[in-house]
């Protein structure tokens, strides 16, 4: 069999482990030929390939990033280019099909997020055999129990909270840590529980600044002169954009002066007269060597995708249905977001041990 | 309610996180009083207690070990003591019951391995209300999907393999890493897969030294002049004690000259004339700050045990039945070992990516 | 002898290691009594103490923060308070002297930065015996070769760069990492060299945005489609505030829209049309368990300070004069900043391996 | 200029960072051509080369091991081979000279320990221009203040002690940690101080088992029911081989049943009736990503070696004379071992904070 592989979308620990497992399984088990495409679908548009033999994947298991490169701006159905200094947009999906045919591929394994997998799914209608491997560091995909990269990100955030916790305690401060999670609060709630945060703000539970200030005072009453707050970047106050307005009052326009973490810190300084500081963890959450859990899950995903290629389970993606790896039709899996249930589960456990959600 | 807590058996990352969650939930949710007993059942035998209020569990979430202390030699039904220089053994279980009554406990939460939980179960017959929280770093308990501490141990071993891998490659060596796992190979197979080991030897699959030597030669033929082998301490050669005999030939008695890792390394040097070295990871596998996964699981175990106390689910233990924490009768859970299935699951994935089990 | 100890100023890995070494040396070597004051000089103003015996320093060596607490707003010569809702400022230095006398102290060991040590020095004129232990995570003190906490911060930043490097490479991005260093670029240049950054911007060498853009293009010409830039928070463009102005053009007021890192990233996006992202590492640089180097240096500082107390080397501070710990008069040590020499040393090495300083 | 590079001897974190700095400096500063030789002097004997251009050293800074490979059995003056099944030994140094000439080298940069550098020095007499870069993870070379790899090893050992400390405390055990250091105790004393060990045994200070047992009892008297002992592999009892004899009594031959760490643990169990366990850290001390300190020192060494090549400082090696990198004649630097001074320095600081050396 001749198998193509590409990685699309943002960085995520475990991408190289997935690629390695696809290649090793395809070669060791089936004697396949594997071809990597550079920088997501761009590699198929421009026919930029890299041979994926055993030496090429040697030693990549512990490494962050992706040896294939990735891209965020490579939708072949709406491909954006600069021609003669002009931004143009065109459908180059037939070029992708041509490249696929030229390399005589039997299957294309696409590792990517919702957007990338939707593109992959559309190529089924154009006759390509695609298999998806879901990638979302936010763990917000309902079709699979866990996604790779999430465990590593949670550990990275937890270690940052560990570091910030002692500073908060020694210096009697309110420390706000802003983490990834635009639509779902999985990283915030998981790392917040693991790090011993006192307040966790997630998109699923609107927060109230006055309630948070009260909780800080309650802690002070118990002799705890510090508070650590973990905020998902998508968390919102119950009263909506009130925060933004207050911060820019006096200015003629409404500009975003930083993320929700900065705003929460500023508001709390005003409300409580305590020192409050915000740290935005940013891109360090997407990098680094994958945790053991993520390396194993990535290996299982990659190995199973190679098996699915030979079982002709096309237009499907691999998914963890603990303890098994199942094949889920891409059409069913796409756009099905998994949010943190606002009752039960992690939220219930967190409340039991005294964590507040600012509500 | 008045709740007692003790920790028994070997060290395991997450013990403090469990204690903290019990205390926080009991106090925040129910206004309970919690009393810690020192050094396992010894604390009940000798009435050595430590008050477990909120300040006492502050800051312990990330710490290894147990603030309560533990013991391996404290079975109250067969209590070993030195009296007048003589080793004696006696049944002091009634003293435990007295201490329980004296402190007017409504429930005793016992965090420990199979041995400790069996003792807890026996006290039910003596009228005590016990709730168990299972602890085994080897993850070899069938009643629960995962046990806390395991994920941390696997990450610790993986990091050691990462370090040893580059040495093996640069110096063209066979490197053997001996890890925990007397009866089950979970740590070896998980960390071995995560670390990219080439050969994994586990108790569930007897190995053959000649086969291992062959695989090292096969790798050499492919230009790979190094091999990393992960061995569970309970792994055995198919031919049994053959290894031990060869090593001590010429000696008048059969002595154990090191663990299975040392033996594998020595045999391979003889068979392949390559340099082979063994590292026994030992106690570093049991220590360190718990991983995010273990801190969350420990928190869920502890919080749920406190809830179970109020729901009077006595003579039960908490268990992870993904994604829920269930109550399992101790009588059902005891002595039910979970071994690595020699086909399917992890073994199948590992074989797919080219890992050998020396068989 | 009766010795008082306090910690002042911002957080810094190694503070607890210093306290521990003072206490252990004072007790083991001399049988002294040691008293801790809470939250910097506040503890002397309000007579808030904590006994520092051997049990109180047990287990604190690896922990971040300070068990004594710290404060940034506690200058007894200009003490700011709220009385009846009014902010007042007064000289309460005599209260400090009274507390010192009340506890019959023979010496006060002050662990802190330039500001805290200056206060300590002023108390010499009021008859107190003070010994200083210098603390600056930025390593910008000329009186000592290295300060504790710096090595840990550099390692923390390096690990963040390691994580960001793979993302930059996989996603063909310009990644900017803003680190501590208001006046001196020690953290930036050290962590930048250790992390393999391509461009390092420090306060000592004004940078030029067009030069940086050129260097990014030069890299692109060599097939390197990514660039990692480390920026000290105090780095400045040669043309001064030009950057700030351009960013807010169209706005009626000149507001600071983020630090220098954000500005560099935005400017580069405009100049190069490449994706550029900034991560501000913030408070994680001040926390965490100290590195081996910092634990040893802290231990040497603390132990030597206790010895100096008995040698009556008052109004001095400990300082590393490799390989010795020397006593330096506080009057000589204060306000003597150590900056990165713009030629020779680290800058020369960095340039040799191809690192640019944006000049 | 045409420069050759090789790495010899055991693994050491920073080797790749040295190679990278040599290559980057040689190419960026001088436009040189750099050629790597595989597996130490073997590469010159068998003419196995690898081109060292900029892409070949891209991304290797954080990686353990050496991309050039190394060897321990490659002395060209006494080269051991198997011919027709026979072990032979011959002088192939002229072959090395031929290879050097064939590649028209102007200089050979040799990165290695005492043995490797001595070989390099001998080639000066044969007309080769050699420059040495000293490598010893044990830091036992008097010609240079610090060697690369040492700081990483000390941190690795410290982290292991951190993990073992909590187990020791929770389980009331004597825990022995055996670390590298055959002739000098630098790793043991540095990591022991950094990890808060209670007793440190080094080759420079003979120990006494009875004294150690006493110290354990003294700790017990102060309520400390655990003790952590760090032992350098070359540490020896004052009474010499007494330990070994006692352990094998009853056996007909004297065999080594493990290292000094195992023996200390067994002896202490006998003497104190406490549980004692030993962990031998082994090869994990030589691997892993280098610390910031080691990456910077390695970069300085490599960059300066390239400069020395152009300054024709042949038959010299680079050496850290804080804060400078100096050139030291190989003839002066060889075989000059740096041991831990048994009085003053680290030993004095350690004793001040209550650490015993078992004497």
Structural class computed from helices and strand pairing of chain A: alpha/beta
Biggest sheet architecture of chain A = 7 strands, mixed
CATH class of the largest domain in chain A: Alpha Beta
Looking at the chains present, what oligomeric state does this protein adopt?
Answer: homotetramer
Tell me the strand percentage band of chain A: 15-25%
What CATH architecture label of the largest domain in chain A applies?
Answer: 3-Layer(aba) Sandwich
Radius of gyration of chain A: 23 Å
Total strands of chain A: the figure is 13
Helix and strand topology:
Four copies of one chain form a homotetramer.
Chain A: E1 2-7, H1 15-30, E2 33-37, H2 42-45, E3 49-51, E4 79-83, E5 86-90, H3 93-102, E6 107-112, H4 114-124, E7 130-134, H5 150-171, E8 174-179, H6 186-195, E9 199-201, H7 209-221, E10 227-232, H8 242-247, H9 260-272, E11 276-280, H10 292-310, E12 316-321, E13 324-329, H11 330-333, H12 345-352
Parallel strand pairs in A: 1-2, 1-6, 6-7, 7-12, 8-10, 8-11, 9-10
Antiparallel strand pairs in A: 2-3, 4-5, 12-13
Helix pairs in contact in A: 1-10, 5-6, 7-9
